[in-house]
Structures are given as structure tokens and as C-alpha cells.
Write a structure and sequence with these properties.
The complex is a heterodimer of chains A (428) and B (268).
Chain A (H helix, E strand, L loop, with lengths): L16 H11 L29 E2 L5 E2 L1 E5 L26 H13 L5 E5 L6 H17 L6 E5 L6 H10 L2 E3 L7 H7 L5 H21 L10 E7 L6 H15 L3 E6 L16 H16 L4 H4 L12 H8 L6 E2 L5 H4 L7 H10 L7 H6 L4 H4 L3 E2 L10 H13 L11 H9 L3
Parallel strand pairs in A: 3-4, 4-5, 5-6, 6-7, 7-8, 9-10
Antiparallel strand pairs in A: 1-2
Chain B lengths: L1 E3 L4 H11 L6 E3 L11 E3 L4 H14 L3 H10 L5 H15 L10 H23 L3 E2 L5 E5 L10 H7 L5 E5 L4 E5 L4 E5 L3 E2 L6 H15 L7 H7 L12 H7 L20 E2 L1
Parallel strand pairs in B: 1-2, 1-3, 5-6
Antiparallel strand pairs in B: 4-5, 6-7, 7-8, 9-10
Classes of the chains: A alpha/beta (428), B alpha/beta (268).
Chain lengths: 428, 268
């Protein structure tokens, strides 16, 4: 029936498995895995952009695999303290050729393993030489291999601005990692990098995108915009400081995302903590970041600059508890902006409420059916005049925190010394 | 009365016309245990009646046939009754009811449509093609809902020069792009001869998958939430094996026993 299954054999050059392992293991701490934002069309080759993005697999660490995340080389001349590829550490080194990367990308893509390429590199020889190789690879991928899938290029700090412009012609997204949330931490832990060398190319790309749009040229320049990443927990900055920095970046450089990477000790150094930063901190920062981008919050509303986000409740609940005088709100009358600020009501639930209440007065039963998280929302709303929450702040906070901790809870035992200690001290 | 129909759109619309005024009507495209004395009827598709019914319903809600298409693709046993109650409400109110989520019939139908759309979206990522000796691509899938042909436009747009077959092994059907035409066809079994390099690329992918994982962060629950275990069957990266190997530090990406296909193998 399917005559195209007829047998013809051919071979292509594959990257060595060990090279792939080395270059992937060095790249895996880059957090960005998003493949959204680009609607690049197929123009007679392989691949296209998917504006909503697509996850192709998930690894046991809970992260998605969307892009082929790989370094061109891990042979670095920089000596950043936190980096597993830094010059002064003795690890296996490998460098791939642009052709090997292109072959790998196209063959993985056509099997639907990946949505595109996330290409980065250690600073090999010099920033300009490395950036040239990155540009060569993406140009080859777009022109010779006719690949129209998603390409994310990580910019090399201190590279020539012309090379940055050239890379942007072929990439869907570019990113410069801020690495650490303050200049003093950057000086201490990444002495060869400075804030200006990271912010200058970001601002350059923002200007070039604005000019491109103003001139209404065909196609698009960096359709998926720019992102950045910073390590959380390797330096003493508080969450309030980090969120304010993220907010400034969204406003000043038009970034699409700021990624936070929970510090994992992969190298030993006296300047670095020897314990892993708790995952819950990263989680809370992402929740707060969502509130900044989609829920109309300002960093000033969420927390003071010199404080951390509370680990026991999410940032929206924490804000609502500090502002109990604004609640409860009536779901049948509250405007969208107010509904979005109610804990337990997300963007989709708010839209569903707006749509459904045009036809009938909503009750708690209706909200339950619409999958509003009543465990949180019931303390902050009335439905048809009815209120099912606990009145005072202390009780609400206790109930919300208990709900968050339920996952790690277990039955105490009289004969379990550790559990008995926990019960006595109240520490978990 | 229970109305059995064959799951097709025309048969549903014919049954809908018959059952509309029946207070105790139950429409089903599957099997159902009847109560003692309960009456049932098997409704065959009547094209003329179906077109008339379709035109009338479109008059109330122009997009309702898209909803029906999605509802009938669902693998849930109750899909016939969910669609019937939803369309009965459209006919009773004589307008689109999509936004009236406080109504049980609407929230059930919208939930069902969302589950079908979610699976189609997930499979855009979880489909794994294997390259055959002639250069064509073959991917076996086993979705809960009948979404095989919903995936066709997505892959046709990104692989226009490569012929491919999406084989729904559960429903014995295939969605095919031969480089010029897209169509669906019944396909109980496909014998495929894999290309010489296929095994090598799968091994590289397994190596990549094992390397990109951070072993010190173990969040299996989250992984399974995003990628339910029922989709792991045809994934060459063998997530189960990588998860198990986390207990021993060296995650070996060796080929797992239930990997999709051996070279020169066949899918049934």
C-alpha cells in the first residue's frame, strides 16, 4: 500500500555519542526551554514555528525537553566560579563542528524529538571567534539545510555588535544571561563579565527590532524576542531585589521572559554555598514573575526590596492576606482586574466567570464546576451574597499554609523519634 | 429509550432528531446494559435528515458542527449523551450556549472538547517518527481520542517534502501524507523496514535525554503530570528507564526492552 517504504540505504555523518554527552551536560543548566513566540513559516525546507510552543518530552527532573540544548564547545577561557565548564576545572572538553550540530538538529527535528535548537557555547579562544562560529552554524542551518524550525541563540558577552546583528537575522530568539542579580556578585563570581557587556547587546537588539518594525520590512527580526537568566541562591540578593530587577528588565529592554535557576553546587569553591538552593524559592519567584507579567501586579505591591517571598504560601495569597480590607469581592459584579487578584482564580477561570455570569447569577456550586480553586478563593469572594471563608487573617493564613504543606505531611508515630521531635518543636 | 448509533456525525444527527422530544433519551455510540423492560433502537444514518438537522443547528450556532466533530472524537463512553444534552440545549435556547458554563450540559461538553484538544496538542510533541529505508517517516500512536487526522495538518506544514504515516494502532487507521495528498485510511498492520541510520539516531536521542536530566532534582510526579505514563509506550527515549536509573548515579541510556521498534521490525 505504501510504496514509499521501498528500500534505499544512505548514511550521514553523526556526532559522536561522547561529544554529545559532554556538550549537553554542560548546557543543561540553561533554564530556557521555551519554543513559543515564533510563527516562522516553512519556505520549502523542513520545519516551521509553532507560536504556542510545544514540549516534546519531560525528564525525571520535571523539566520539559523542547529544544536541542547544546554547546558548540565547552572549552572556555573564562573562569566563572559557578560554572562547570570554567577554565580552571579539569573536565573532559569537546567541540562540535557547525555541520555536526546542523545534521543533529535536522535529524532530531524530522523525527519530532525536538522543536528546534538552543545553541550556546563556552567562550572558546575569544568572544568574537565563538560568536562567529555560532553565527556560521545558524546561517548554515537556515540556508544550506533549509531549516525553518525554532532557533534560540545564546549571545556571547563582549562579542562584536556586527556579529550580534548577524546572529539576530537567523535566530528566533536570543538571550544574554545576566547570571547573577547584582553587579557586585557578578564581579565576585564571574570576574570576566560585567553588567554593561550583558546589557549593551540586549539594548542593541531591542533598538534593531524597533527599527525593523518601524520600517515594516518583510519577515521578522527575532520574532520570539529576548530572554535572560539569573542564578538564585549563589549570592546574597533577596527575592524583593530580584523581582525589581526583573520588572526593570521587562520595562527597559522589552524582555519576553526572565528565567530563574535555583543554584546547584556543581563545582567546589570557597565563594559559593555548598548546599543546593531550595526548589521552592525558584517556584515562588516564578509565581511572582507570572503576577508581574499577566496579572497586573507591581513588584512594590508583592514584597519590600529586602525581603524574601514566604515559602509557605504563594505570593498572590500573601498579597491578599496583607490587603484583606479589599476582600471579599462579589464574583457576579467584580471587574476582570479584581477577579485576577483573587487567590485561586487564574486567567482562564476569570474569563470563564465573566462569560458565565452574563447568563446567570453564579453560586459556589457553579464556581466549583468551573474549576475555580475554592480552597483558596472561598476566603476572598462572595457568590450571590454568600460567603464561605474563614473571617480573620490568622485563620485564613493557617488554612492556606496547611493546604500547601499537605503534600509532605505524614501520620505521626509514637515510636518514630524524628517525627516525635517534629511534633514537639513544630518544625518540618 | 436508549438510542444506539455508530459514532458518525450523520448517525448522531439522525438520532438527535428522533430523541429530541424524548425526556428519558440516552444516546450512546458504545455498548450499554439495558434495564429490564427498557426500550432501545439502533439508529442508522439518514443523510437527508442529517443535512436538514445540521442546517437548522447551524442557524442557531454557526460553530456548533466543529464542537460536534470534537465531541464525537472523544474516547469517553458517555460522548453520545454529552453531545446530545449539549445540542438539545442549543436547540431549546435557539442560540449558541458555549459561554453558559454554569449549565451542566455545557460544562460537560466544553470539558470533553478540551480533553480532546489537549490530547491532540500533547501528541504534537509526543509523536515519534521512525525513518524508513525509503526516507518516509512512520509513527505509531495509541491515543485515547480519535485525533489521528487532527495531527495531519500540523505535520504536513512542517514536513512538506517528507511523506509520513501516523498510525493509530488502537483504532487500526492511519493518517497519511504522501508528499502531495493527505488522507486517512484503514491500516491494521504496517510492516516497515527502518533506515540504516535509524538505530544510531535513536541511540543519540536516548543519550541526549539521559544527559539533559539533572539527577539531583527528582520530580517524577511533575514529569508524569505533564507526560502521562500511557504515552511512554512509543517514546524511544524510554523515560521509565531513565527514571529508574536515577537511583544508580550512572544513567545508562541503553535501549530498553519495550522500545518502539527493533530495526527491520513491524508494528501491529
Amino acid at each position: 500500500m505504501f510504496d514509499f517504504f521501498a528500500e534505499t540505504c544512505y548514511t550521514v555523518a553523526m556526532i559522536a555519542e561522547e561529544t554529545l554527552r559532554i556538550l549537553t551536560e554542560s548546557a543543561k543548566y540553561d533554564v530556557s526551554c521555551s519554543s513559543s513566540g515564533s510563527g516562522r513559516r516553512n519556505a520549502g525546507g523542513i520545519g516551521n514555528g509553532m507560536p504556542d510552543g510545544c514540549c516534546h518530552s519531560f525528564t525525571p527532573d520535571g523539566r520539559c525537553v523542547s529544544l536541542l540544548k547544546i554547546l558548540l564547545s565547552n572549552d572556555c577561557v573564562f573562569d566563572c566560579k559557578y560554572c562547570m565548564s570554567r577554565r580552571s576545572v579539569d573536565v573532559p572538553r569537546a567541540t562540535a563542528t557547525p555541520e555536526e550540530i546542523c545534521e543533529l538538529t535536522v535529524d532530531f527535528y524530522k523525527r519530532n524529538y525536538i522543536e528546534g535548537l538552543f545553541l550556546s557555547s563556552a567562550v572558546h579562544v575569544s568572544p568574537d571567534a565563538t560568536m562567529e562560529q555560532l553565527v556560521r552554524t545558524v546561517r548554515l542551518l537556515r540556508t544550506k539545510y533549509r531549516f525553518f524550525g525554532y532557533v534560540h541563540v545564546k549571545g556571547i558577552p563582549k562579542a562584536d555588535p556586527l556579529l550580534v546583528t548577524e546572529a539576530a537575522k537567523y535566530a528566533d530568539r536570543m538571550s544574554y544571561n545576566l547570571e547573577l542579580p547584582s553587579e557586585s556578585s557578578l564581579k565576585l563570581l564571574a570576574p570576566q563579565k560585567d553588567k554593561a557587556s550583558l546589557l549593551a547587546p540586549m539594548k542593541q537588539l531591542q533598538r534593531e527590532r524597533a527599527v525593523f518594525r518601524a520600517e515594516k520590512r518583510r519577515g521578522s527580526l527575532l520574532p520570539a524576542g529576548q530572554t535572560t537568566q539569573m542564578i538564585v541562591g549563589a549570592s546574597p540578593e533577596r527575592d524583593g531585589h530580584i523581582l525589581r530587577l526583573a520588572e526593570r528588565l521587562y520595562r527597559a529592554t522589552g524582555l519576553k521572559r526572565v528565567y530563574f535557576s535555583s543554584y546547584t553546587p556543581v563545582v567546589q569553591d570557597g565563594l559559593l554555598p555548598c548546599v543546593q538552593s531550595p526548589a521552592i524559592r525558584e517556584h515562588r519567584l516564578y509565581q511572582a514573575d507570572w503576577l508581574l507579567r499577566f496579572y497586573g501586579f507591581d513588584a512594590d505591591e508583592l514584597l519590600p526590596a529586602e525581603e524574601d517571598l514566604p515559602p509557605d504560601i504563594d505570593p498572590k495569597c500573601a498579597w491578599a492576606l496583607r490587603n484583606l480590607h479589599l476582600f471579599p469581592v462579589e464574583v457576579n459584579r467584580a471587574p476582570l482586574e479584581t477577579l485576577l487578584r483573587v487567590p485561586g482564580i487564574g486567567a482562564r477561570s476569570a474569563q470563564n466567570i465573566l462569560s458565565a455570569r452574563r447568563y446567570t447569577a453564579l453560586s459556589f456550586e457553579h464556581l466549583k464546576k468551573m474549576r475555580v480553586v475554592l480552597k483558596r478563593a472561598r476566603h476572598f469572594i462572595t457568590a450571590n451574597g454568600k460567603f464561605y471563608g474563614a473571617g480573620d487573617m490568622r485563620t485564613v493564613r493557617g488554612l492556606l499554609a496547611a493546604g500547601e504543606c499537605a503534600a509532605g505531611a505524614r501520620q505521626l508515630s509514637l515510636f518514630d523519634a524524628e517525627a516525635a521531635l517534629t511534633a514537639r518543636t513544630g518544625e518540618v | 429509550m436508549t438510542y444506539f448509533f455508530d459514532g458518525s456525525k450523520d448517525a448522531f444527527l439522525t438520532a438527535f432528531l428522533l430523541a429530541y422530544r424524548d425526556e428519558d433519551a440516552f444516546l450512546t455510540a458504545g455498548s450499554r446494559q439495558l434495564a429490564l423492560g427498557q426500550q432501545s433502537v439502533f439508529v442508522c444514518a439518514d443523510t437527508q435528515k442529517a443535512r436538514k438537522c445540521e442546517a437548522r443547528l447551524r442557524g442557531f450556532d454557526t460553530a456548533c458542527m466543529h464542537d460536534l466533530d470534537m465531541l464525537l472524537r472523544s474516547g469517553e463512553d458517555a460522548r453520545g449523551q454529552i453531545a446530545f444534552l449539549y445540542f438539545r440545549l442549543i436547540a431549546a435556547r435557539r442560540r449558541a450556549v458555549r459561554g453558559e458554563l454554569a449549565e451542566d450540559a455545557v460544562s460537560e461538553a466544553i470539558g470533553c472538547i478540551r480533553r480532546v484538544a489537549l490530547e491532540a496538542h500533547r501528541l504534537k510533541g509526543f509523536v515519534r517518527f521512525m525513518e524508513c529505508a525509503g526516507g518516509a517517516l512512520y509513527a505509531p500512536i495509541s491515543p485515547d481520542n480519535d485525533v489521528c487526522d487532527l495531527l495531519l495538518p500540523h505535520f504536513r506544514a512542517r514536513l512538506p517534502q517528507l511523506p509520513f504515516v501516523l498510525h493509530d494502532v488502537r483504532r487500526a487507521k492511519a493518517a497519511v501524507w504522501d508528499g502531495a495528498h493527505a488522507f486517512t485510511a484503514p491500516l491494521a498492520r504496517a510492516d516497515v523496514v527502518l533506515s540504516a541510520d535509524e538505530e544510531g539516531w535513536q541511540a543519540l536521542w536516548r543519550r541526549y535525554y539521559a544527559s539533559v536530566n539533572i539527577p539531583s532534582r527528582r520530580r517524577l510526579q511533575q514529569m508524569k503530570g505533564y507526560m502521562p505514563v500511557r504515552y511512554w509506550k512509543f517514546l524511544p527515549e524510554c523515560p521509565a528507564q531513565t527514571a529508574d536509573a536515577l537511583t544508580t548515579q550512572n544513567a545508562s541510556p541503553a535501549r530498553c526492552a519495550d522500545a518502539p521498534l527493533p530495526p527491520h521490525g513491524s508494528a501491529r
